[in-house]
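Hi Y.,

Following your request, here is the sequence exactly as I used it, all 244 residues.
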Amino acid sequence: MTNALTITDLMLTFPDGNERITALNRINLSVRGGEIAAITGPSGSGKSTLLAAASTMIRPDSGRIELETDSGTVDLATLGRREATTLRRESIGIVFQQANLVPALTAVEQLEAMVHLGQTWFVSPARRRAARAHARELLDAVGLAEHENKRPGQLSGGQRQRVNIARALMNDPSLLVIDEPTSALDQERGAAIIELIVRIAREHQAATLLVTHDLAHLHQMDTIYRMVDGNLTLETANTAAHAV
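Below is the corresponding structure, written out as tokens. Let me know if you'd prefer a different format.
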């Protein structure tokens, strides 16, 4: 699988009275499939805004966001709302700070629901069986095979975040966008989640953007960027990380 994300001269501004505030100032970033680009920086510096732009949640003023997959390369910055929704559903996995799981659904049902999003026609029994089998495989991969029938209220914070990660992988995304996955976890559970993300990114060959305040795990990342006041700079490229 050939996956890669390349962001070039990305600009995004927001209105502020009669002026505009620059949220993203000529951002340049690249990450290949199977690699993780970590983004650090103070709160309010534009990190989550960058993730939102990369995942088609908001449209930039200018610049390019090129996602390369086996099917070709698409500039995410040019997509209309409907196209962006479809591509996000099919090619982008998003992991938020909070798991945002549906309280009434079991762990396996959380994943199965991703397959049926946007479907307006009858879903065949064969497709349902395939979706459940894939969901079970992913839950097993994140260490939750024995918890597939539990609802969010029956899971710990770390377990809910694992379901969140597995759900993001349900449609075999080319791009993973992960926002502060350890913010609500203690150090031990946070370390386990980072190790899981590293393994998943490698195995699934997903180009991965990871926003984090936890500097203890940066040695496992392939590249480290720092965001300050909408400006992104490359701090280091860790050539040893991919071997970890």
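Strands lie at 4-16, 19-32, 36-40, 62-69, 72-75, 92-95, 175-179, 207-211, 223-228, 231-237.

Thanks again,
Q.
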